[in-house]
Predict the structure.
Amino acid sequence: MSAPTVARTDFRSIRRSYVVVGVAATFVAIVALAFLGSSDVHPHPVRTTFGFSALVAWVFPLLLAPLAYLAVAGDRARGTITYYLGLPNTRADYFGGKYATRAAVGAATMALGVVVAFVVALATYEHAPDAGRFLMLGALSTLFALSMVGIFVAISASVGSRSRAMMGVLAAYFVLSAFWIGPLPALNLDTVLDAVASLPGVTISDSTMALIGALSPAGAYFNTLPELVWAGAPGQYEALAQFDDAPDYLGYEPWFNVAVMAAWAVGAPLVGYLRFRSAELG
Amino acid sequence: MSAVEIDGLTKRFGDVTAVDDLSLTVERGEVFGVLGPNGAGKSTTINVLLGFLEPTAGSARVLGTDVTEDVQRIKRRVGLLPEAFDGVPNVTAHEHVAAAIETKDADDDPADLFDRVGLDPEDARRPADDYSKGMHQRMGLAIALVGEPDLLILDEPSSGLDPNGVQLVREIVREEAERGATVVFSSHILDEVERVSDRVAILQDGALTAVNSVENLRADLGMGAVVEATVDELPETDPLAAVDGVTDVTVADSTVHVACATPRAKMPALRLIDRATTVADVTIEEASLEDLFEAYTAGEGRAGGRGGDRSGGEARQTPGSGERAATAGGEGA
């Protein structure tokens, strides 16, 4: 088993390319600024986690993309893959090592972002942050990061060129984050489902809509927060209270949404590996 | 057990046939050169042997193991220098080799390997991105040599190397062969192949055109060598033409030209000339591998060389050409 050797070599490579530093520094800076900027507006840091969640769902995947899209496709395009696979590494060793480094960097960056958010909140907000809420926020955000890294690395392992990997990763981001729970009314899943529902004889129930909305990592991530992070939040913030009376649909159940993110985090790399296992290299 | 046994191997990419019904055997301890123009199927064949590509049809065994069954077992005993080797970005040669040693569970000293391939130890501590193509090749060679492999597969090893580097590759191939390793290497540098190979396979359009020792290939094509003797008095040509292995005799001014298809024809021909007249000077011009390559890969009519029988049609009837199969010694299968 030599996946650790692959991972170590790969980590050296991406660390020295400043991709890691770039991704981490950018995210941490954005998060710090977001919390700092809201410290005068909201006395309770938990209110700012509402905006933080939007950063995680819409901005963070765009930072992960350059970290992940070349993970395997870049090696195939350069021919570097023959270095790894000319040695007694199985394709599982290679893919596992590659996924491990990108997932570790994605998870560590997210954890660092949440820690920095907590420290900024502790230093600048009127009320101290609730460590339990931030811990839960960090865990859910990290799970979301892992699911997106898994999807991106899977795409990278499924295509044979850099350009396809880039297009695939961007398409996955737009469909699963921007489109699925997107802020643009003309271009999001609800609009499409409403259009389908308006067809004669077709109705989509609210519970089905909720279920479909929960099927992307970003949708699932948002659905976990009201109950696991914002429930009983101090300050009576309207933004957080709007979810208090959410119907009792499966699509809004925290356990279901955590399971969806876990399924993406595990399933996407698995599918990527299965495609890579039979790929023609060379 | 042979080092490499390829039987009816075919590899297609869509409508393109990269390797076409190739059969080939490389014996243990042999230095085997694979020669062919770009697109001949050399690298595709190597990629099948390492499990990078699945055969479309046929089979391949390396060191007794089927490549589709247990390629890990094969890779533990093989050293590979891939074509156009490119290292991991931002990683030094030392780290590349150290990772290879770790993966192969070998006990090599990276410094010794760099010394063998002529890579400066200081350069080996720099990220390989800054390397010239030749330095990349040297790093790739060092990686291939890790763990004293039973089979060394070198795909265009001299690519990007200066003459000293080419000479170094030759020495490494000889050293590895002396150690008992089998060496398979592809090249389009004919001189390189000729100097170190026990046998040569010529590939064209994915098919095996010929396989044999360079000497036998020359003989097969009747383009072994031309003996030129400068004489005081021109001898009779008929007795010379009757010597076994002599394919053509011509005279011009005070020079006799005797085309010999086989090496053993040269001395009898020379003795005959020496008995008949006084020989002032002798030169022997061997057909180069380049001539052979051209004879085997060019279209009919271009085949031939310095020897007597220059029929391109006949050239394609040599061992291996008919059924695209050959084993050690060049026997057609």
